[in-house]
Amino acid sequence: MMTHLSGFGVVLRPINEEDLSDLLRWRNREDIRSMMKSQSIISMDDHRRWFSSIVQLNNADIDSKAAQHCTSDSIAIQSQYFAICYKAELIGSANITTEALSLSKASEVEPGLYIGHERYRGNILAFAPSLVLNDYCFKELKVKRICATVHANNHQALAYNAKLGYKLSSSDEQDSQKSSHDHVAGSEKHPWIKMTLQEEDYLRATAKIRQFLSRPAKKN
Amino acid sequence: MSTIEQLNAAFVSALDIDEKQISDELAYNSIEEWDSTAHMILIAELEDQFDIMLDTDDIIDMSSVAKAKEILQKYDISF
């Protein structure tokens, strides 16, 4: 069964049909999709087809073959997709994928996350779903590292990842040294930056923010 | 020191900005100095200045100077 994750004030639950319209509207917004690997506008029909495929994932165990999402070139990729909720309201979407046979056997996963709700974009709450998702990856899935691919122009995400403890991946550090000017200028030649997160760096970098986002709610 | 002076002092100290930069419209992430780390320092400064403890919802909601004033009023601090 699909995992429900919670902590730091947010809940990550399976995406349901009622979420589709908000998620599509947010996903297709220029400021959000322009930072994604796939930047094309998605139609509601395509969105529904994608949703049908993830419903199967949601109902499968992460070890089972049913949970494998087969792309057109037949590479099996394990994925989990979540709706991010704050105070029971949908505010965004998160996912993890691995190229390993199953998430439970993965040593490396790649996360994807966006906050679409206007009120919480650029808000400190944006850290909460990452903390929940990363804790899940390190503690439950026991992955060794989390690898993110960030658009070189997405300065906010680069800074956000650095606050979470991510470091530039070594191979890309060389790339970015070779083309540091291009990165600064946002050249199309090297538009993506790979960053890697190790558990030790993650726990050290997020110690303070965890404290702030896990204070008990005030009793009224 | 008045409460507005205390508020401004907290912002100046936490964000390391000039007092002239403080206005109701100043918002989290709108300037380089007000990032997540500075936000946490700001919370600690406000709690210290006003001898209160903010809860998580208020820490999340405190997305601008105007919002900070609004939230602090819930803790019986008037401006």
Structure commentary:
- The complex is a heterodimer of chains A (220) and B (79).
- Chain A is of the alpha+beta class and 220 residues long.
- Chain A has a single domain (5-213), classed as Gcn5-related N-acetyltransferase (GNAT) (Aminopeptidase, 3-Layer(aba) Sandwich), CATH 3.40.630.
- Chain A has 8 helices and 9 strands.
- Chain A has helices at residues 20-27, 30-33, 44-58, 127-140, 155-164, 170-178, 180-185, 199-213, and strands at residues 5-7, 10-13, 68-70, 76-86, 89-98, 108-115, 145-151, 167-168, 192-198.
- The model of chain A is unreliable at 65-76 and 176-187 (pLDDT under 50).
- In chain B, α1 runs antiparallel to α2.
- Chain B is 56% helix and 0% strand.
- Chain B is mainly alpha-helical and 79 residues long.
- Chain B has a single domain, classed as Non-ribosomal Peptide Synthetase Peptidyl Carrier Protein, Chain A (Orthogonal Bundle), CATH 1.10.1200.10.
- Chain B has helices at residues 3-15, 36-50, 56-61, 65-74.
- The interface between A and B is medium-sized, with 21 and 18 residues.
Short description:
With 220 residues, chain A is of the alpha+beta class.
Describe the structure using short key phrases.
heterodimer; A: 220 residues; alpha+beta; Aminopeptidase; nine-stranded mixed beta sheet; 9 strands; 37% helix; B: 79 residues; mainly alpha; Non-ribosomal Peptide Synthetase Peptidyl Carrier Protein, Chain A; 56% helix; 0% strand; globular
CATH architecture of chain A: 3-Layer(aba) Sandwich
Q: How is the biggest beta sheet of chain B arranged?
A: none
- Average residue pLDDT of chain B: 93
Share in β-strands of chain B: under 5%
Helices and strands of chain B: which structural class? Answer: mainly alpha
CATH architecture of chain B: Orthogonal Bundle
CATH topology of chain A: Aminopeptidase
Counted beta strands of chain B: 0
Sheet of most strands of chain A: 9 strands, mixed
What is the helix fraction of residues of chain B, given as a range? Answer: 55-70%
Biggest interface found: A-B, 21 and 18 residues
